[in-house]
Specification:
- By secondary structure, the chain is α+β, with helices and mostly antiparallel strands.
- The chain is 18% helix and 34% strand.
- The two termini are 27 Å apart.
- This is S9 family peptidase.
- Belongs to the peptidase S9A family.
């Protein structure tokens, strides 16, 4: 039976403007009526999707069957050991291992997460950190999905887990080089903002841990890490628009912490260490960032010396340091390049990846004294691949490519990049992939259009074996690289945030129109998907152009923008004022209100909608999608499906196990394919 949400009108007033929120009461997760309502929505979804249950199981088994259950990452060498992660058949979770001296050596299991997860409905382990002397492993466990972690310690010599733990941490851990002290960060209990750095002495009472640093500016968060050289510990404070790093000798962590460069509004920087200098990626007088070096003894801004100067058309995303080389990860015209620059001043060069649209990145390279660069690559048609690249001979060696069980032939699929003209004449790239034998540019193809478009996160073209379940059933998959990400540089991000946020939504609409005009699909066969801030995109777009889509999926969507950004007690709010704006300012309030999906629901026809949520979500509180669905159901004028699935045992990322997560994806794919089967020859098989 279709759930009916009761209305208890709550008047919310700001800047002399009144809003009435009939579902404000849903914010109380301790209220039994809230839980009953969520369970009723889950029951309604199950009822509406009952005819696809066998198909969901088929999809789940199909996607699972492509995964190599006995699998292992490519080992990397560090401090006399080869380190790797493996999975065993039937296991949901990773096993962390190492071998001493040689890959032929005896395997030592550092941590089997499957054993930690026994009897738990949710389990996530992060922050794996081994002490400098290889004696202790520290790791952090979340059993709820709210990203609040407990730190445990294991003695690697005896195999015993120590009798005490450190609760309520962020999972951000690092050891000092003195083998005695572990540093970790804690979050505010209410807002979950990471704002404190503590020092723990091994075998001591955690209640006596020393507070090293507290970040009092509510727009900043902080974390701690070591430089690649392991010579320094860094406390990195950052907001959306500013950075500040404190550093100390990792061997003498009780010394006074020094500030590398004091925070300045709109000055961002991140650093690493090599030789007598800190090497810094910064936007100082460089919108697309540049790399500078600064002497350790006096590293402040006036002593920064350009190493890689700013370029208008190239965004510097990352870098890595080696004894003989400086490697930078750069983005030009929306595509990643890896640049190799020898320290000796000889000419540098870039790697050629040979595909039209792809993703490449600097891999894990813990060793300084090597001429090999570990990097990763994949594309919409090429499975995830790990390479070693000899930076002198330029020889590229494939170490591992994701194996697709049952076989996969990339030649059967086509990937491409096309460009759509936005409302303001800006050209927006779209990456897409389809199966050649199924595709014809006749407007009859079902097409799933995905985007994110916030926080400067680029939506790169990546391979997914799960996606084959759509492509093999005639779907085209497309990624709209809308403004709000950094896909085409820092300006691309700046033009899709704050008072320019609507560019993100209109870019997506332009991409959808272009795909229809070019006959990749038609509006009655077009589907859209986005999650979190990408769910905001979906919500805004279907308010603006509901006629463009047959169906949409909004995963853990951020849709109650104004109410959330006005509530400083909600996790992550204050730290995001520079992304969305501070609605305590009337200009930002009214602009955010004009696109907030929950506030802009109208009495009109909407496409079919599937919304997913997590009861323990720390990023987007469960009540946002819940309220939005209730408002949509109350006001929309059509008979199309609107379904809400709340995972009552998980948070922002959904189920924690590698196979359990596939069940949620199978539901989403079944929803799309069920709709598409009414318009095309697709059958639910």
């Amino acid at each position: 039976m279709k759930p009916e949400a009761k209305k208890i009108p709550e008047v919310l007033e700001k800047h002399g403007h009144k809003r009435v929120d009939p579902y404000y009461w849903m914010r109380d997760r301790e209220n039994p009526e809230v839980i009953q309502y969520l369970e009723a929505e889950n029951a309604y979804l199950k009822e509406q999707m009952k005819d696809s249950e066998e198909f969901q199981e088929l999809l789940f088994q199909e996607m699972k069957s492509r995964i190599k259950e006995d699998d292992q990452s490519v080992p990397y060498f560090k401090k006399g050991y080869y380190w790797y992660v493996c999975y065993r058949k039937g296991g949901e979770y990773p096993i962390y291992c190492r071998k001493k001296g040689s890959l032929d050596g005896e395997e030592e299991i550092l941590l089997d997460v499957n054993k930690i997860a026994e009897g738990k409905s949710y389990c996530q382990v992060i922050g794996m950190a081994v002490s400098h002397n290889q004696e202790y492993l520290a790791f952090a466990v979340d059993e709820v999905g709210r990203r609040i972690y407990t730190v445990f310690f294991k003695n690697l010599n005896t195999g015993e887990t120590l009798s005490y733990s450190i609760p309520n941490t962020t999972g951000n851990l690092t050891w000092a080089a003195d083998d005695r002290h572990l540093f970790y960060s804690r979050q505010d209990e209410k807002t979950l903002r990471s704002y404190q750095i503590y020092q723990h002495t091994i075998h001591s009472n955690p209640e006596k841990d020393q507070l090293i640093f507290q970040e009092d500016d509510e727009e900043f968060s902080c974390h701690i890490h070591k430089t690649k050289s392991e010579a320094f510990l860094f406390i990195h404070s950052e907001s959306t628009i500013s950075s500040e790093i404190r550093f100390v000798d990792a061997k003498n962590p009780n010394q006074e912490w020094k500030i590398l460069q004091k925070r300045i509004p709109h000055l961002e920087y991140a650093a690493d260490h090599y030789g007598d200098h800190f090497w810094i990626r910064t936007n100082h007088q460089a919108q697309n960032f540049k790399v500078v070096k600064a002497p350790i003894e006096n590293p402040t801004l006036e002593n920064w010396e350009d190493f890689i100067p700013h370029r208008e058309d190239v965004l510097i995303e990352d870098f890595d340091l080696f004894a003989g080389f400086f490697v930078s990860q750069e983005r030009n015209n929306g595509l990643t390049q890896l640049m190799i620059q020898p320290w000796d001043g000889s000419p540098g060069h870039s790697l050629d990846f040979g595909e039209e649209t792809y993703t490449a990145w600097i891999g894990h390279n813990p060793e300084f004294e090597t001429e090999y660069l570990r990097f990763g690559f994949n594309s919409l048609i090429t499975p995830a691949s790990t390479y070693d690249y000899h930076m002198v001979t330029k020889e590229k060696k494939l170490l591992k490519q994701q194996e697709i069980i049952g076989g996969y032939d990339s030649s059967e699929y086509e990937s491409a990049r096309v460009w759509a003209k936005a409302e303001d004449e800006t050209m927006v790239p779209i990456s897409l992939v389809y199966k050649k034998s199924h595709f014809e540019a006749n407007g009859k193809n079902p097409l799933l259009l995905y985007a994110y478009g916030s926080y400067g996160f680029s939506s790169d073209a990546y391979f997914s074996s799960n996606r084959l379940s759509l492509l093999d059933r005639r779907f085209v998959f497309a990624i709209a690289h809308v403004r709000g990400g950094e896909d085409l540089g820092r300006k691309w991000y700046e033009d899709g945030k704050l008072l320019k946020k609507k560019n993100t939504f209109t870019d997506f609409i332009s991409c959808a129109n272009h795909l229809i005009e070019q006959k990749f699909t038609s509006s009655d066969r077009l589907y859209a998907m986005g999650g979190s801030a990408g769910g905001l995109l979906i919500g805004a777009v279907i308010n603006m152009r509901p006629d463009l889509f047959d169906g949409v999926i909004a995963a853990v969507p951020f849709v109650d923008v104004v109410t959330t950004m006005l509530d400083e007690s909600i996790p992550l709010t204050t730290g995001e004022y520079q992304e969305w704006g501070n609605p305590n300012n009337p200009e930002y309030y009214h602009y955010m209100l004009s696109y907030s999906p929950y506030d802009q629901v109208q009495s009109q026809e909407y496409p079919n909608i599937l919304v997913t949520s997590g009861l323990h979500d720390s990023q987007v509180q469960y009540w946002e999608p819940t309220k939005w669905v209730a408002e949509l159901r109350d006001l929309k004028t059509d008979q199309n499906l609107i379904l809400l699935h709340t995972n009552m045992k998980a948070g922002h990322g959904g189920a924690s196990g590698r196979f359990e997560a596939l069940k949620e994806l199978a539901l989403e794919y079944a929803f799309l394919l069920k709709l598409a089967s009414k318009k095309t020859e697709i059958g639910l098989k």
